Amino acid sequence: MKSFKLFKKISFLANLGLIGTLGLGLQSCNDLLTENVVSRIGNDYINTAKGLNDATSAAYSTMRSWYGTERGMNLTIFGTDTYTNGADGSWKFMNTYTTDFDTRNGLLAEIWNDFYQGINTCNAIIERSAAVTGLTESVKKQRVAEAKFIRAHHYFIFTQLFGGVDLRLTETLAPTKVVKRSTVAEQYAQIIKDLNEAIPDLENKSRSAEYGRATRAAAEHLLGRVYLTKATSSAKAGDDYAKAIVNLKSVIANYGLTLLPNFADVHKQGNEMNNEVIWSVQYTRDPLTNAGGNNAHVFFGMEYDVLPGMQRDTENGRPFKRYKPTNYTLDVVFNNRENDSRYKKTFKDTYLSNKPGTYNTSFDLTKKTVTFALGDTAIFLPGYEMSEAERAKKKYQVLVPSRYDERIFPAINKHFDGGRVDRTQFEGGRDFIAFRLADTYLMLAEAQYFSGLKADAAANYNMIRRRAAWPGKENEMMVKADELTLDFVMEERERELLGEQSRWLDLARWGNLIDRVKKFNPQAAPFIKAHHVLRPIPQLQIDRAEGTSTGFPQNSGY
Predict the structure, then answer these.
(1) Neighbours of 121 (CB within 10 A)
(2) How far apart are CA 154 and CA 192, in angstroms?
(3) With bands split at pLDDT 50, 70 and 90, how would you rate the model's confidence at 5?
(4) Cβ atoms of residues 450 and 231 within 8 Å
(5) Which residues, 6 or more positions from 207, have their beta carbon under 8 angstroms from its beta carbon?
(6) What tens digit of pLDDT does each residue of 419-430 get?
(7) What is the pairing mode between strands 397-398 and 377-380?
(8) What's the number of CA atoms in the CB half-sphere (13 Å) around residue 6?
């Protein structure tokens, strides 16, 4: 199978006055990581066969601004009911919703700029493709379909974060200050139109021949999510859930996708191209072409490297200790550990010594010293309040929940990247799994639940829960139709998708972000307000608009 990888960004096309200089990444679609970095490309390059292909690759590269990055993670993990801030001092205000989270937030400006660059690239592909020679009509149609998929994706993220934005559907070739905010309804109409037009011309398979390109399965999965989200928006329609169900059922039935037998294997390093993955965002190991890399690996780790018997290494990660699971996550979401394997398979509970020796204990005071040989268990987090007598029998430090703080807490293992060149490298190279089949089942079940089809919803939830069960505990994991509640819907998504850039968007579409944060995130509870259901429009956009705040109004409350 060919691997569709994304290469170095360069300056391309003209200036886009809305956001500054339009930069497009030019990549090659070759076997594995054969690279062809191009520079000094003129405006007419996109009118050639190779230029159109490279422009499509460039549009994909803007996905890297969101998936597996500090931008995307902070905007989806922080400030929710399931994660709060750890000790890392960076960006804590994005969790706590203090006044530092304002219109000049750098991460918001970056995602705004990058996505509009991608959108303008897509607009150019769509408009110019008809005149391109040297490609078959089927390939040109596929490239246009991919551009519509990417454009729809970017506007969908924008709509969820900001509400109305500037809905630009034609290529911008010269600087302009003439912009306006569209309505949410107009944006949803265009997102749905783009995806419906894209689906017939995308590859009709679960996985592209050039891995990383969007397929029909990816577009239908995204369209299902769009309808599910639209159903609770100001643009909602009575048939949104029904249309979500149609698209999500198609993903499950028509492309040969399957749930992996073992939940732990879904995010296992080296297994990113598995039968559950619908679409992923591509990264590399080459510093020339990897931009900022997939850096999700740094944010969820605890400070293991200051504890006896341990030092920082690539296997256990560079611990930024950015995101700390809330008590609600550990005590409620993952409370059924006897039957459900996902707590054990989501959180890292054991650290093996990589720094042998004898040490005074600093955290587990049931013993005065500990001695480790290489590979001995040095740290164990049982996840419950093990008695002091039992802890004292262990030859290693046992860290119980009452000992957790902003530095010590269970780290999730979905994003660990042992392939980094050294223990300090920030730029990870693992692909980021953006869409997977388990989420398709969860969204389908949710749409059925809100449509009153609770028996159907239970059957689809049980597809996920059967896989999650410990062997022999399958019956105990099955949920009945009359047991379904909104709390169950919300908790089942996090049992499966914790740390996968979904939670803030989920809470926002359910309309209970404020209530849930006040109830379960004590750091954020005193500060979150009603207007925080939307993010602030970047000030750079308002300053560049004709009429500034009159021509492009800020979201209320900022």
Answers:
(1) 29
(2) 12
(3) low
(4) yes
(5) 1, 215, 273, 277
(6) 888 888 889 989
(7) parallel
(8) 30
